[in-house]
Amino acid sequence: MVYVQCLIDITSEESRSRAWDLCQEMQWEIYLQYVQDLENQKRTEVALEKRGYIFHEFICIACNRTLHSDGVMLLNCRHPICLDDFHSTIQTQCANSVKDFSCPFCQKVQFNFFFLPVNPSQIEEHCKGDLYNKVADLLSQREIESWENSKRCCDASCNQLNVLSEEKQPGFVCEKCKQPNCLQCKALHEPSDDCKYFQFNQVHWFRSKWTGNHDKANSSRNNYVVLMPVASNSPEWNA
RING-type domain spans which residues (predicted)? Predict the structure, then answer.
């Protein structure tokens, strides 16, 4: 009988015992339905296993515990990990704003030269609630940063990501700190101002402050010209 053969191949000892009891009682309709349910369950498990679910005994690569379920088989590197460690790994990497989410075992053995990132579909499927929202926000931010018209504020203490209305506009006002940003010299001033004139004033102010504070210590420092970091990469600056 085909059903009996399928039953022996796909079910546990307990399931076979239950099916045999039904046969002995000659409850054929219940028996056939029971076997059909078992086959459907097996098909479902096979489909879920292809998506990384684990329904058998495994050893977690993060905590080394032996578990019988509630695990994730990372599809790209084929390492099994329990759900708790999977969630904590994604949480930590999300907090660190990593470029790619990676397997903790691959990280531990320093496969920095080559490792396969965690499949995004598995993160979406196994991370729920606040953790999923954090991952979604991080991935959205990465997508926005890849746009040509996205720029960060030149003020390091702000670092706000701004999306510009035009790709080649000369500057912008930061949405967060409201400071003007010049994209030509990467400095905090109105883009309509002359970059060279602005930077000359900045250097003059910085040099005056330096010499004013240290003129008693060493007069030779009066000859120093110190460029401010925000102005050091200007295409128009001629020292």
Answer: 56-239
Query: What are the pLDDT digits (tens) for 102-154?
Result: 888 887 765 555 567 888 888 888 888 888 888 888 888 777 777 878 888 98
Which of 145, 230, 142, 119 has the alpha carbon at shortest distance from 181?
A: 230
User: What is the pLDDT at residue 27?
Assistant: 64
Return the exposure string of 129-166: e unless at least 16 CB atoms fall within 10 Å of the residue's CB, then b: eebeeebeebeeeeeeeeeeeebebbbeebeeebebee
Q: Are residue 108 and residue 76 in the same domain, yes or no?
A: yes
pLDDT < 50 positions in the chain:
1-10, 216-239
> Distance (Å, rounded) from C-alpha 222 to C-alpha 207?
8
Answer yes or no: do 123 and 162 share one domain: no
Distances (CA, A) of 11 to 5, 27, 45, 69: 10, 19, 12, 16
Query: How high is the pLDDT of residue 233?
Result: 43
238 lies in a domain? no
Tell me the pairing of strands 71-73 and 80-82: antiparallel
Report the pLDDT value the prediction gives residue 86, as an integer from 0 to 100.
93
Q: What is the domain range of residue 26?
A: 2-50
Q: Are residues 74 and 137 in the same domain?
A: yes
Q: Report the percent of the chain where pLDDT is more than 90.
A: 10
Q: Which of 50, 67, 85 is the last residue of a domain?
A: 50
Q: Which two tokens stand for residue 31?
A: 């028996």
Are 118 and 77 part of one and the same domain?
Answer: yes
Q: How far apart are CA 133 and CA 114, in angstroms?
A: 28
